[in-house]
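Recall the central idea of this unit: under ordinary conditions, the amino acid sequence of a chain determines the structure it adopts. In this exercise we apply that idea directly, starting from the sequence alone.
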Amino acid sequence: MITLCGSTISNYYNKVKLALLEKGIPFTEEKVDTGRTDDAVLSATPLGKIPFIRTPQGALCESQVILDYLEATHPTPALIPADPWQAAKVRELITFIDAYLEITARQLYPKAFFGGELSEANAARIRAQLEKQLAAFKRLAQFAPYVAGDSFTMADCAAWANLPLVTMATKAVYGQDLVAAAGIDLKAYTKLIDQRATAQKVKADRKADQAKA
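Accordingly, the structure predicted from this sequence is:
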């Protein structure tokens, strides 16, 4: 059986957890904080990042690598289209969500969520990056009604877990939701995904763990 390791507070953990639930894959969970430096963790995730999974074959880290592994080992129900072009377009969207939007917005998290400092110059630089990236993402995303079209895919696992953080961070730092300003109706999309029992499970577990913190 797969063990999902990390924290329900982590957006990338919840990206993987949502995929596991959508596929109906049996799994257990193990609480592991990010940044651990003990050998037991570094042997599974050498940078100490979460999430990672433990499998009978060994450990695997990086959220998108994990999702691709899950798709290969449990192809039904599919979270990637069978058509190679459409599959590539889903992965293209995931790259924009994870590697551009979330990673850029992550620079705002210390100030947005933890009261950290952020210079005006850096705030302006990050805003310019996000505005450019959001405009590019809007050209690719369909939201019809799902990110990649009419079917739920692993791009939705990434979008549902990550895009709300971009909204919250930009509102906290700039006083403006840059996602909405880019013409992306994230509220309607999030409401759609929130109707899924799998998303409700992820949210309930996160809320329960936040209450314990």
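The radius of gyration is 17 Å.
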